[in-house]
Fold this sequence. Notes:
The chain is an alpha/beta fold. 44% of the residues lie in helices and 14% in strands.
Amino acid sequence: xxxxxxxxxxxxxxxxEDKIFGINQxxxxxxxxxxxxxxxxxxxxxxxxxxxxLVILSSVVEVLKNLTSLDYAEYAPxxxxxxxxxxxxxxxxxxxxxxxxxxxxxxxxxxxxxRNTIQNYSKRGDxxxxxxxxxxxxxxxxxxxxxxIATFTLTDDKGxxxxxxFESKVKELLSIQDGLVVILNTPAHNPTxxxxxxxxxxxxxxxxxxxxxxxxxxxxxLVDVAYLDYAGDEEEYRKFFPLLEGLPENILVVVAYSxxxxxxxxxxRSGAMICMTGDKEIADEFKTVCAFSARGxxxxxxxxxxxxLARIFSDEILLSKVTHERQAYCKMLVxxxxxxxKSANDVGLNMVPFDxxxxxxxxxxxxxxxxxxxxKEGIFxxxxxKGLRVSVxxxxxxxxxxxxxxxxxxxxxxxEQ
Length: 417
Ligand code: PLP
């Protein structure tokens, strides 16, 4: 029953304030009152330089500034402008050219792609499967359209992808639902920094193929690649894509690609959902149903962002400028994560296996209490279930080196009382 006066809860549990936003505000307040040198704000999900300023790719800004008035002002087609559609396939897949039907629908960031996939490939009341550590908005989106999130255990006790847990959850859910949407956020998973390697991918593919082999059920695999361009080598981290070719027609792959991080266009709200299927009819249907959902929620997307991406991909020199600029920041980020991990290993801080990305996750009991205690020392992290999410994207490498020991001390202080 809802406590709202006018609003309808519609089975959603709606917090009064976004948790991460709330902790970030506390960090900002402390920095203003006591000096920024007293605060380590590891809550932010954007890449900041060592001075705490948002990293913005200047080569992208240059393109934006040179757009025409029409590029800003005119409506875009619902599914995206034709040149954006071409460009975003290259942005997502790199040099790999899928041997599959790949239709595209533009979305406002990766978030829109996640929403449209859940909306169109699950039924009201269904459970959507993802790993036990997951990005909170998956649940927000699911709840908002009357679904829920179910989870499997991401890693086993050797720190490898937990194929056993994944298989058992896939089978369990398919035994009670007609279909299943599975969300895998890789590489550089938020919040752990885990990346599936090719062996993990082969396991995933075999499991889902087996699970729907009798043709009675269907499965949609949503690959959320929001951090693909910050994982490391561009070619290396795209090697899993070919494994997604040639799947049976009752398995649909949807790639959620976002320009937020890759092109530092967080606020311009641009991205796309790209399907991969061997069946043309299913690809056409994807375009029809997802464009319909787009029309029924945000209508069309930001045309200036589309024009920017299209322009970058129409000029190889410009593309190489953007890529090189990003690579330098990617190197900085990877270095921060590795430094955190090394210090954590040195002092014996228990982390979820980290590969790359914006975040690391420290396992601990009583994460909320540990988080609050750390705040007293000016360290701001985000408690996420059975651990703390630390954004290495928003703190310097020096801080990444010193943070693990401070966190470990606080965990011991809180849990050994
Ligand atoms: N998926 C994950 C796991 C994310 O962390 C994010 C952004 O933080 C996104 C998707 C997509 O974000 P956006 O909608 O800004 O592109």
